[in-house]
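Example 306, ligand magnesium ion.
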Amino acid sequence: MAAALTTISLPSLQKIASGKVRDLFSLPDPNALLFVASDRLSAFDVVMTNGIPNKGAILTLMSAYWFRVLSERIPSLRTHFISLDVPAGIPAEEASVVKNRSMQVRKLQVLKIEAIVRGYITGSAWKEYQARGTVHGLAMPQGMRLAQKFPSAIYTPSTKAEAGAHDENIHPDDAWKEIGDRETADKVEALALTIYKAAAAYAEERGIIIADTKFEFAKDAEGNIYLVDEVLTPDSSRFWRKDGYEVGKEPDSFDKQFVRNWLIKEGLRAKEGVTLPEDICVATGEKYKEAFYLLTGTKFEDAANN
Ligand code: ATP
Ligand code: MG
């Protein structure tokens, strides 16, 4: 198995932030930054000690693909994407590290909200519904079954916790308290739903159900709202295969669910310092590649060689 790249070392650039999966580096243009995806994998907000080979490149190329599709389908959409080009002037060994796994993006003030949209009931939404009949505090129809489609997609934000803490589900009416003002919060909600619907329709044509997904948004100095971060990847979304989908049954895992299921089975949910067995890493990598191929129509290896 090819080695996974869990640490990104770029001595010629200044690292400005490091998330669970990505490292952000400054670029000569003060309004841009280099957004680099490592092969690290997090589940239940904890990063595994080992990674998934090529995952960073798969996520980066998939996000870039979606930024293009979404911009075509929603012409008014602003995104942080600038280019997949390796920044000019960086040493060859650093260029080979970031090739395919980095995007030059607009540097923006990220809004403190995880803009989750759910088309189908599963995960924490299913748990809350079983316990209280609500989803993020929203009343839901009675008698819903696992994996059932909501009458229409719902916006179910969560807080964006600081490193080490867990995001908390909140009622959409409370999102403005995290974001700062109601006007921005309303725009984010409308935008998240519009993007989800466009993406879900696109994916459905390709045999994939986007059960739920998480977007992040940011503002520029003029107050314009941008779609940022990664988009519609297996890390930020639950993808289900349309074939074989059945209400009442947990759909076959098509993404990180694979890892989540293993962690739960082993009693390692949200435990620090977990090393995934090699077969789980290989199988997860294959799932990511399969999702890439189904959604983009191009094999990851071919996309990466371009
Ligand atoms: P977080 O909970 O902060 O999202 P994470 O562990 O998911 O943490 P990563 O995905 O590893 O984070 O790192 C990406 C980070 O970059 C996130 O904090 C995200 O909010 C931030 N980010 C995304 N797009 C931009 C942008 N255009 N400008 C500045 N920061 C950005
Ligand atoms: Mg993230």
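Summary: The radius of gyration is 19 Å.
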